[in-house]
Amino acid sequence: MEWTKEEYRFLKTLSNPDKIQAYLDSIDYNPNYECRSPRWVMKKRSAHCFEGALFAAAALQFIGYKPLIVDMLAVNDDDHVIAVFRENGFWGAVAKSNFTSLRYREPVYKSLRELIMSYFDFYFNTDGCKSLRSYSIPFDLTTLEPRHWETTDEDLEYIGDKIESLRHFPVATGKMIKGLYYASDSMLKAGMLGSKPEGLFKPAKNNKK
Predict the structure, then answer these.
(1) What does the alpha-carbon distance between residue 76 and residue 209 come to, in Å, rounded to a whole number?
(2) What's the rounded mean pLDDT across residues 69-80?
(3) Among the four residues 25, 86, 143, 191, which has the most C-beta atoms within 10 Å?
């Protein structure tokens, strides 16, 4: 299934990664447990991080990038999914998040790990516990073209299952994790600026494992 003429005209306005990010920042955060297509995101003007990553990947593909997503696993917190892209050999990212600090990254990172580690100090739960633990290899969504992931009415949770099964790389050792400090109150407030309360993860107390 292809884009409609109206969708095509809209996607043409998102002519670079920064404009794609601006669009994601302008729409509501979806707190519901579901995963809808980029077409659904445009219709409803709503997305959570996974839907936002899929939309960003579709929009990036529309302007010539590969539609790549990366899974970021957390403990005692929501996982996160981002759309990644490369310019001149350097990695950047576009993302939707209920936290201001887990969104766009400029393409200035030499490696995928370097990009992911730029999120580490800003990836914390509502108690301020730094929660990022691992990240996946990039998943190329062109392998799913026969299922029309960009425009389908099908729930796309199967993509979530797929990326969770990919090889993941740890971001810190157990000893490092035990020594982590909590995010400061000012950082916590900044990260949650404008967040949608019903979409926030409710962490168990005193759990860094």
Answers:
(1) 8
(2) 98
(3) 191
